[in-house]
Amino acid sequence: MTIEIMTFRLRLETAPETFIAADAVVQAEFSYQQPGIVRRTIATSEDGTWLIHTVWQSDTDAQAAAEAFTASDLGTDFLAMIDDTTIEVQTFTPAGAA
Known about the structure:
alpha+beta; 3 helices
């Protein structure tokens, strides 16, 4: 199992409501269509930082989905709303997992 945490800030011209609507499309039309996805959640903090928490069956599934997403039109449009200088991605293995 792999847990992926992505944090970022939106571009100044991106309204949060627009981003939330776009994320709903990403979740329905891309994320939950990917092999190995277990769960995906989006959240925001009071300071404007956003977080996407995704759980995958394996690191291989996570990597394949990331490559497919960045190569897709949907991914390109979604990522254009994010300030790319603020993106941080971390991956974790659940404690006690082999």
